[in-house]
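Input.
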Amino acid sequence: MIADARDRASEISFYLRDKRVEGLGHPPVYIPESQDMVNQFSFWPRYDEFVEIKSGAPRPEGEVYTEENGINLFMGRDALFIRNGEKKHVPHSIQAAFQSLEPVGTIELSRYGKVIRTWQVFLCRNYRTLPL
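Output.
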C-alpha cells in the first residue's frame, strides 16, 4: 500500500486492522519513492530500496551473470495507491514505476450527511522501479 503523503500513510497505518509488514523496520504503508529526505518515512525501509544479495544466494530468474550486488524485493508486485481528493493525474513517480494503473474506487467519509474527505484508490500492477 502506498499513500500520497505521510499524514495519510500514518493515518491508514494506524487504522489498518491487519497490518502486513514486509520486513524488519518496514512501515505497513509507504509514501511514493523520492530522493528527497522530507520526513520520517524517508529514513525507514522503502519499497524502492535494493537489498544486498548474500553470497551464493540464487539470482533472480533469467539472470545468469550480473555485477549487481542488490535486488529489489518488490519487483513484479502490485500495490494500492491511495490519495486525497479527486485529481486528474497520478504522480509521475507512481505512473513510471508500475506497468499499469487502474482506478478501483473512491472512498467518501461523511459526517451528518456532508462529505468531509474523499480518497481515490488505484490498483498499480507490476512494480519495476523508476527508470534512471
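DSSP finds two helices and six strands in the chain.
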